[in-house]
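Archive entry: two folds, one per protein. Generate the first.
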Amino acid sequence: MEISRELGVTPATVTYAVKRLLAAGLLREAGFAQSKGGKRASLLRLNDQARWAIGCTIDADRLSLAGVDLTGALRARIAVPLGASPSRRRWAGRCTGP
């Protein structure tokens, strides 16, 4: 196993980790490698839709949210205006930034 040699771990360790990642839906099988005899190696790829990360920024006048998949590709983005409200004005004087 190429990965086990690169990482300096046993093939069994890689197999165990791959099985767990497949079961969690983070990896998916993508066919088989060409073989020169013996068992063909499975090709694996990241399931980029398995999880998303969300980031946000809060500005004085808006809240911005962005969602990215596991490859870092932008999948969703929204900016919500923040209007002036009595409670916001009351808290604005208490909040300080770096």
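Generate the second and append.
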Amino acid sequence: MGKSGRGSAGSSGSPNLEELYHMAVDAAKKGQRQGARVMFRQILEQDRRNVRAMMYLAKLAPTEKERVAWLEKVLEIRPGYEPAEEMMAKVNYNQTAERNRLMFRLGIGAYVLVVVLITLLIIVSAATLTV
């Protein structure tokens, strides 16, 4: 069987790479993420440079770290591959947005803290003036 994944099923009746790919895609579309991941990994055991399987594994990755790792592998094999670059840009955008949300929350917290401290200072100053 070649790298394309095409060929007929072996005498054992097991699916060829193309059939296995379609079975994995169907499983992913039906929400059977773990089963799909197993099948995509089986494809990669036979064809380590199968970009389509890697892209699906990136989509199905349970963590952003794993998603990035799959996308980096794709881009090593096919530099400039637009779908991988777009997905990587989306991951980077999400990470930046999360950092921005965190910074905003910290900024609000700092602002509230400063307002409370100034208010307390005013109250203490007023209390010492009236004594």
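Annotation attached to the second fold: Residues 1-11 have pLDDT under 50 and may be disordered. The domain at 17-130 is CATH 1.25.40.10 (Serine Threonine Protein Phosphatase 5, Tetratricopeptide repeat).
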